[in-house]
Design a protein that fits this description.
The chain is 42% helix and 23% strand. The chain is of the alpha/beta class and 278 residues long.
């Protein structure tokens, strides 16, 4: 199954996302499918008895469609350029859809090996924020937020605290971890959780042993202090371009609220690509 690249927002910001999706596809030995999904502009049309209002509504609908067509063309051009630069090995496709964008994206993401969003999709002001939020928080689908300065090549850094979210993140992104071949497990001993009867299975050493059984060489790095600073420090020391982690937060009235560590990593200009699961 291909890597899904969900396109939207400013076309000039799409290149790092597309390059990340292509790099992940190469690791996984698959292709890339770009998705440009937009709402049906006729659904926002307003109808009144007065003829002038009907004309105004039709004009507004036409303007919305023209704007969508312009955005689709610009995003398609960036995608085509990136695909051409990747070389003939890449099997690439581009799909345009119109309708309920969240549902469309979720349907494609379920059938993808990985789903890549631009990093900015985690911010409320981005056009893809509600789509990213729905896929990650409501449908519980793994998602990758592409950094703006690098394409992931490994080793991967795993932010580990023994929680179910962290476990789901590792399990969901296991094929990518296997394609990298090695991972660094970063565990903050200040943040050890009371995880009841699952303590033995949820330790960082147990994770390392499990990964080795899954053909991923793994080493554990312990640290203390602020989690985001520790993760970025270890990522830099091991040249990790990707962090696998559980997404701590929830959505409320259409606004995603991340935990402090997630927010800090998202706000870091030099932060790696994030592979998330909730």
């Amino acid at each position: 199954m291909p890597v899904l690249c969900v396109l939207g927002g400013a076309p000039e910001r799409a290149k790092p996302q597309i390059e990340t999706a292509i790099a992940i596809a190469k690791h996984l030995g698959t292709g890339v499918k770009a998705l440009i999904a937009m709402p049906d502009p006729t659904n926002s049309a307003m109808y009144f008895v007065a003829g002038e209002a009907v004309m105004a509504s039709a004009s507004s609908c036409s303007a919305s469609k023209a704007a969508q067509d312009e955005a689709r063309t610009a995003l398609s051009e960036v995608y085509t350029e990136c695909v051409a630069a990747a070389g003939s090995w890449l099997d690439a496709d581009l799909v345009n859809e119109t309708g309920h964008v969240q549902s469309i994206c979720a349907a494609y993401a379920i059938l993808a090996d990985a789903t890549v969003f631009p990093k900015e999709a985690a911010t409320v002001s981005h056009p893809l924020n509600s789509v990213f939020e729905y896929a990650l928080m409501e449908e519980r689908l793994p998602a990758i937020l592409a950094a703006g300065n690098a394409t992931p090549k490994g080793p991967a850094l795993i932010a580990w605290d023994g929680s179910p979210r962290a476990m789901r993140a590792v399990r969901a992104h296991l094929p990518l971890l296997q394609s990298f071949g090695h991972a660094v497990i970063a565990h903050n001993t200040d943040k050890d959780r009371d995880i009841g009867g699952t303590a033995d299975i949820a330790t960082s050493d147990a994770l390392a042993e499990w990964l080795r059984a899954e053909r991923v060489e793994a080493k554990v790095e312990l640290f203390t202090g602020k989690v985001s600073e520790g993760l970025l420090s270890i990522a830099g020391a091991h040249t990790c371009d990707l962090i696998v982690m559980g997404a701590y937060g929830h959505s409320r009235i259409g606004q995603m609220l991340f935990g402090g560590t997630s927010r800090a990593l998202l706000q870091s200009e030099d932060g790696p690509t994030l592979a998330l699961a909730h």
